[in-house]
Every structure is written in C-alpha cells, then in structure tokens.
UniProtKB/TrEMBL annotation:
Name of the protein described by the UniProt record: Transcriptional regulator, AraC family
InterPro entries according to UniProt: AraC-type_N, Homeodomain-like_sf, HTH_AraC, Tscrpt_reg_AraC-type_HTH
Cellular component GO terms, alphabetical: cytosol
Keyword Cell inner membrane found: no
Keyword Flavoprotein assigned: no
GO molecular-function terms, A-Z: DNA-binding transcription factor activity; transcription cis-regulatory region binding
Ranges where the HTH araC/xylS-type domain occurs: 236-334
Length: 345
C-alpha cells in the first residue's frame, strides 16, 4: 500500500509560479518539468501531489538560486536549508533548536525575521519586518514559518500543535489551504503577524541524527513545506487504518475509535485539534487516492472509480469534477491520444 502523501491546491502552485515568473523564469517550463500540466494550472479546484509540488519547489529554488523565491532583498541561496538543518541538528532540545533555526534565518534574510516570546501558555513567533520594506504577502510568511516549523517538528519527532495565527496581510484567495497549513484560528488584516505554538516541545529532546537527516533532506521539501504530517498523529493513524481497508469496509466513527483504542469523543476532539474531522479525512483520502492512481498507474478509470467506492464511473466523474474542477483523464500523464479519448467516453 502506498504511503498517503496528500495533495496541494493549485492556488498555491500558481502563487509559487508567479514568484518565479516575476523574476524572469519560464514558469510553465518548470511546472511541466515537475509533472504539472498547463490545464491543471487553469482549473481553480485542481490539486497536485506533494511530490509534484516538491519537485516544483526545488526547480524554482535552483533556477533562482533562492530558497525564499525572491521574497526578500537577500537571497536564501540554494542549499541553505541543508545548512540550517545541520546547524539545528546538534541542539539539545526544542527550545535550542528553535533558537538556532530563527538565528539561521536572521543570517540569510534581511527583510523578514522573527522573535520568540515564551510563557506558560504558548510560544509566540512574532514576525519582524524591516522598516521601509513592502509588507510581506501571505506566501512569504508561510514560506518562512513552514520551513522553520517543519524542521522543528522533525527534530523533536512530533507535530507541534498550533494555537492561533494572525497576519497583517489581507486574506489571500487560498485562505482555506493556509488554514490547513497553520490552524483554524487564523485571521488576517491584523495589527501584527505572529503564530502561537503549544509550549510542550521546548523541553523535548532532539531525537534526530546525521543518519536520519539523509532521508529527511532527500524528501524535502515535499515532506515539510506545506504541512508537517507526523506519522504518529491521530489523523495519520486514521488515514493509515483507512488505507489498509477496502473502501467498502471503512468503519463508522465509533468503530474507528474502537480500532484506535480511544473513546469516540476523544477521537473527534483530538482530530479537531489537528485540524480535521473523521469525515474530512475520508473525503480527502478518496480524492487523493484517486489522483495518485490516475497519475501513477495504468488502471482504467472504471477500475479506479470502483477502488474509491463508486459503483458507476459516471458517479466518479461527477465527484471528481466536484473535487478538482477537471475530468479524471486530465490527471493522466501524457499518453497515446487513443487511450485518453477512450477513457473520456
């Protein structure tokens, strides 16, 4: 069974490509190199795999020699994240790792930084913007935070709960996707920009080593750049359980809770804390399995429809259009025209 990686809204893909295009890079060529076809970019509901987005991220960072995509007056040169990881890897605990990560970002960026304030209830990362510079867009805040946060979560071996997030910028078109990255308690047009984290991670030991860093860095940024997904989180356990079962045998919420040895109310509460519901996990998993099968397998669309719980291909076509705004055939890699036309019929 393939590991569930999730998918990413094309709205974020287009934001990323716009940054490359603004700096003279052929954005469409980079998208195609990452396996993202032009029709997908034009469909607001379409989604790409984390692997595709990861490939795009690396492609743009290489082309610009800037892992911050030109969003700061000083480039974060390609390879900076590797150096940042190595700097934080020898920290004793979460607190020291966070300090090192923020300090590293201060060295490589001029316009955007962060300061850390800690109390018994939260760890607040307040964004600091250099005077006289243009206020950052949401994508800049997200790039900075997710790189630091993803590294920090990996170092301590767990997803650090986010309490709330506030940003000075206007609400972006992809606000829902940013809430998936951060948390539900998120607001825009605020007097300052900050993210509050639950403080328990501060005393957690750094558990990673030079050996575990190799696969982490090999899979980055797809493994962390959008949302750090800890395999030990409850949502990940739910996804893993569902993927091991035929879709027709997916259990009801009470049965899933029993499988996980928790009370149903506890399961619902913990999933909510992680930004999910049981139903949303099932819906997103059906969509992501379908997208993965369309992109990676040669199974017919009728077979894929059946595998994700649709008795009739026509029902799958309707659901897929609702999920992505596109036909299932639009997600197929380039193949013989006859095959594509036959599956469209």
């Amino acid at each position: 069974m393939k590991t569930e990686k999730g998918t990413i809204s094309v709205a974020l893909v287009n934001e990323t490509l716009a940054l490359a295009a603004a700096r003279g890079v052929d954005a469409l060529q980079l998208a195609e190199a990452a396996g993202i076809a032009a029709p997908m970019l034009a469909s607001p509901k379409s989604r790409v795999s984390s692997a595709q987005y990861g490939a795009l991220w690396v492609g743009i960072a290489r082309a610009l020699d800037d892992e911050f995509f030109g969003q700061d007056s000083h480039r974060m040169k390609f390879g900076s994240f590797i150096a940042m990881t190595q700097t934080a890897l020898t920290a004793r605990n979460g607190a020291q790792a966070l300090s090192r990560a923020i300090g590293f970002m201060r060295l490589v960026l001029d316009d955007l930084g962060a300061r850390v304030e800690t109390d018994a209830e939260r760890v607040r990362l307040t964004f600091v913007e250099r005077e006289g510079t243009r206020p950052p867009a949401m994508f800049a805040y997200a790039t900075y935070f997710i790189v630091v946060y993803g590294l920090l979560c990996w170092l301590v071996g767990r997803r650090i709960p986010l309490i709330e997030a506030r940003f000075r910028c206007a609400e972006p078109p992809a606000a829902h996707e940013y809430r998936l990255m951060f948390c539900d308690d998120m607001a825009f047009d605020q007097p300052e920009s900050y993210v509050d984290l639950s403080p328990a991670f501060l005393e957690l030991p750094v558990i990673q080593t030079a050996n575990s860093a190799k696969p982490f860095l090999r899979d980055a940024p797809a493994s962390f750049v959008v949302k750090y997904r800890n395999p030990g989180s409850l949502a990940a356990r739910v996804r893993k359980t569902l993927r091991a079962l035929p879709m027709a045998s997916w259990p009801a919420a009470d049965q899933m809770a029993a499988r996980l040895n928790v009370a149903e109310a506890t399961m619902r509460r913990r999933l909510k804390q992680e930004g999910h519901t049981y139903q949303s996990i099932k819906d997103d998993l059906r969509r992501d399995i379908a997208i993965g099968e369309l992109q990676q397998s040669r199974r017919t669309i009728a077979d894929i429809a059946a595998s994700v719980g649709f008795a009739e291909p026509s029902a799958f076509h309707r659901a897929f259009r609702k999920w992505t705004g596109m036909r299932p055939t639009d997600y197929r890699p380039a193949r013989a025209d006859l095959t594509r036309r036959a599956e469209s019929d």
